[in-house]
Amino acid sequence: MKSPISFVIFVIFLFFLVSSAHPGMKRQHYPCKNLVFYFHDVIYNGKNANNATAAIVGAPQWGNLTILADKFHFGNIAVFDDPITLDNNFHSTPVGRAQGMYMYDTKNTFTAWLAFSFVFNSTEHKGTINFIGADPIMVKSRDISVVGGTGDFFMHRGIATIMTDSYEGDVYFRLRVDIKFYECW
User: Fold this and answer.
1) Do the Cβ atoms of 150 and 6 come closer than 8 Å?
2) Measured between alpha carbons, how far is 100 from 115 in angstroms, rounded to an integer?
């Protein structure tokens, strides 16, 4: 008598164990928050000290610190403190600052490696969002990782889709940053 009951309980337990370990449908991931910002980068070129928001701090031997190097800017490292706006107008009221660095890291095409934070201290947002990743500049839409944040964005992670919204030579560019958070605390 004991043996068949134990066997039935074992089979039911095994059924639940297998069914919970192998879900039938793949889980869909939807963003828990979506934000869009623009950041405006004005690179110091030796003549625009009043407007510059970025500066070249490292250059290859054949380059200098006021003009981006030729050969796809390979070897240049720039730091920036750019205004973040809600629209693409450089003169709009900033809602925060984009602070960090980028370095041009490929000799045969325009690519950069980015590491920066959006720093907010406004009535709408407080805290930071941290980004890192490769930026193949010639690709219209590219993704970089959102690796964390503080304040309103504590422990947020996700993807930021960046697009070059405007480009004026080697002095000014504007990026549209579409942030999708997939982990929100």
Assistant:
1) no
2) 6
